[in-house]
């Protein structure tokens, strides 16, 4: 067994960091310990599990037992992700490690199969001898950086994005810290692989590529047993849950149980971009069936083969899940709803926002990142938000969520009533412009956007009638911003703002090349999925990506480090403003309205600090007292993928 600290093994003893403070096996109340187990020959025991409460029973009588207190410097309570790091993974100061009350870590061949502790060829000579690895690895010892270089070299050999996705998932299941170091240091290149657009294809083929479970699958068959299922998950200190029912995966529709790729991908980004420790993240899929005939007839489909449940049966299962989560993980666990269909997404958010710490990234995260882009774009087009007119193609979760946050921000800036500021925003759904004459037939979340205007069905006619300065696509329908529409926008705007937000790339309302070409290079463009640089009339245009990954990792970190108990709209506005502030003049000069992802961890820290400050201001924070420097505090709480030394 290995000690997860910097101390050495001592013959015939259990040794900690400080021998001078060693004492008998009477444990001080709730003090962290650093433990090592050796045999009579002075070598660590193989595959030994130690429970400090029962250590005397588990160690053979001839072997003396000592327990040493950690250094006083190691009594740091707040580490990776802003909670007590009882698993000793993520201390912001990597020199200091804390092990749990009860630890069982394998050695030898089993250690190489443990993704949380495996270092591959980076195990040192001493570690190989101490932990029975000699001969199980080639003789060469390589450092972490060379491993990253090698993995990126291998990754670039794959020509098919899905193959890269599978290679990344294989690495995550083999060497967790290498996976996150690779992703953090190559985020711009790998983000489209571990998340949109590639994750969409991965979900479509999830049954075929499924190897090992990466989260919890809860189905209708598990009704009445959800609390028990949550307890089956090996990690107990969960801070963030991303949950989906798979009914509206990106712009791909109902993928049922195979939507699990979304929670897995989102939580990878929570760790890589927001610094939430991996063991604190739990992906969950709620399987209530699927209405996708292709899935039901696919022999490799891994979910329930039945039509999707709804009504009372659905709501009872979700209520049991929400109740069990709170009972098992407490008041402050963040539950992120992901890719639920419109009718359930709004209802779930409304129902549980007053009793749980809940966040819907499709509604609130998308809104926050788009608002940040619009605030930035004002530096290029001039004026205030209140001076602009906004037209949406798409009136679902994303469209109405963005529209509401825009109206809230205008209301905040002008002190005008929300009912008035909503009149600056127009939405178009599948039946045309949303107007008051349609009020009786509208879904409840569309009704606030029914304005006094004659009905208009054709989208080009709507554009010509409303004459918006900002055109936003959230329809999930590709190629709907046609040449005629972009040309119309350009005819009455010197610099039309065009945001084609639908994912994946195939569903984007238009491409970057189309937006720049049809607007004669005048458009300020951003998209939901990435597009490469575009050359037009001898000038190269670099478009931004309005990616939720700018917001939700830092937003979640801010909630966690403040101990927030509820999400408030003002926190979303604060996150938008914090992101917009990270766009520099150099970025504006290149036509960008979002900062590059290369600095995403610093961006996330600033967003987290602003969100946490708002939580304290609103009286929703439970972690007291408030740190003086919230940015520095957020950075100190971030998980580091640096390898640990085993002795």
Task: Explain what this protein looks like in three dimensions.
With 647 residues, the chain is an alpha/beta fold. Helix content is 38%, strand content 10%. The chain contains 25 helices and 18 strands. Helix 15 packs across helix 22. The N and C termini lie close together (10 Å). The N terminus is likely disordered. It comes from Lactuca virosa. Keywords: Metal-binding, NAD, NADP, Oxidoreductase. It catalyses: (S)-malate + NADP(+) = pyruvate + CO2 + NADPH; oxaloacetate + H(+) = pyruvate + CO2.
Summarize this entry quickly:
The chain is an alpha/beta fold and 647 residues long.
Secondary structure layout:
Elements lengths: L21 E2 L25 E3 L3 H4 L8 E2 L33 E3 L4 H4 L12 H6 L13 H12 L5 H14 L1 H10 L1 H8 L3 H7 L1 H4 L6 E4 L6 H7 L7 E5 L16 H14 L6 E7 L5 H4 L14 H19 L4 E4 L4 H11 L4 E4 H21 L8 E4 L3 H18 L3 H4 L3 E5 L2 E2 L25 H8 L3 E4 L9 H9 L5 E4 L11 H7 L5 E4 L6 E3 L2 E3 L2 E2 L6 H11 L6 H12 L4 H5 L10 H18 L12 H7 L11
Parallel strand pairs: 5-7, 6-7, 6-8, 8-9, 10-11, 10-13, 13-14, 14-15, 15-18
Antiparallel strand pairs: 1-3, 2-4, 11-12, 16-17
